[in-house]
Design goal:
This protein has about 220 residues and is an alpha+beta fold. The chain has one domain (about 5-195): 3-Layer(aba) Sandwich (Chorismate lyase), CATH 3.40.1410. It contains five helices and seven strands, in the order ααβαββαββαββ. The chain has helices at about 5-10, 15-25, 40-50, 115-120, 140-150; strands at about 30-40, 70-85, 85-95, 125-130, 130-135, 160-170, 175-180. Strands 1, 2, 3, 4, 5, 6 and 7 form a seven-stranded antiparallel sheet that branches.
Length: about 220
C-alpha cells in the first residue's frame, strides 16, 4: 500500500524529525516509554555491529530493510513517543550495543525525556546513514510497541504503519533509530519534497518480509 501524500513528506524528509515536528506543532513533548538493557532482533544487530571495514552491517544500496529474527546481544533499547499538540505522532525505537555506553555514547544512558534527535544532529562527529523504509504489521515488535502506545491512549490502531530507520555512527559505534509514523502525523503541515520519491516496496517474492517478526 503506498504511503498517503500527507505521510510521504514526513517519511522522506531529511534532517532532524524532532525539529520538523516542533515547527509543525504548537506544542511538542517527548514521552519516554521504556529504556534499559535488553536484546535485539537479527536485523537490528546487523545494523549496529561493526563490520571488518569499520562500518555498520546495514546493506548498502537497499532502501527497504530486510527480515530479522530474534537474536541476543546486550543492547541499550529506548522507546519514546513524540507528541504534537497532545496527539502521539511518532513512536521511536533505538538500539545500541551496550558496550558503547562505556565510551563515546555514554551520554545516552542519562538522556531521560530529552529529544534524542536534537542531540544527534547537534554533534558534528555523528554521521547519519541512508534511510530505509518498511510498512510494519503485527507481529513486528516495533509495530506492536506503537500499537500498544495507541491503545493505551484509547486511540484506534491501524492494521499497518509506515516506518523508517537509519544508523547514526560515531567513535566506531552505531546507533540504530527506527521511527514509526502514527496516523496523527499526516494531519500536520509539512514542506513537500517533490524531488524525493518513496522507494518501491518489495515485490511478491519479498512481500512476506513485510510481516517479519522482529521480536
Amino acid at each position: 500500500m503506498p504511503a498517503l501524500p500527507g505521510l510521504r513528506a514526513w517519511l522522506v524528509g531529511e534532517g532532524s524529525l524532532t525539529q520538523r515536528l516542533k515547527r509543525a506543532a504548537r506544542g511538542f513533548e517527548v514521552v519516554r516509554l521504556a529504556q534499559g538493557r535488553g536484546g535485539a532482533s537479527s536485523d537490528e544487530i546487523d545494523c549496529i555491529r561493526p563490520t571488518p571495514t569499520g562500518g555498520s552491517g546495514m546493506q548498502q544500496g537497499r532502501r527497504v530493510w530486510q527480515r530479522g529474527s530474534p537474536r541476543r546481544l546486550g543492547v541499550l533499547a529506548r522507546e519514546v513517543l513524540l507528541v504534537c499538540d497532545g496527539s502521539p505522532t511518532v513512536f521511536a525505537h533505538s538500539v545500541i550495543d551496550a558496550a558503547a555506553l562505556r565510551g563515546r555514547w555514554r551520554w545516552l544512558a542519562g538522556l531521560g525525556s530529552r529529544p534524542l534527535g536534537e542531540a544527534l544532529f547537534r554533534d558534528p562527529q555523528v554521521r547519519r546513514g541512508p534511510l530505509r523504509f518498511r510498512q510494519l504489521r503485527a507481529p513486528d515488535r516495533r509495530y506492536m510497541g506503537a500499537a500498544a502506545a495507541l491503545s493505551a491512549r484509547g486511540l484506534p490502531v491501524p492494521p499497518s504503519l509506515w516506518a523508517r530507520r537509519s544508523v547514526f555512527s560515531a567513535g566506531g559505534r552505531q546507533l540504530l533509530v527506527t521511527e514509526v509514523f502514527l496516523p496523527a502525523v499526516a494531519s500536520l503541515p509539512s514542506a513537500r519534497s517533490p524531488q524525493h520519491a518513496l522507494p518501491r516496496m518489495p515485490g511478491r517474492e519479498d512481500h512476506a518480509d513485510e510481516h517479519a517478526d522482529g521480536r
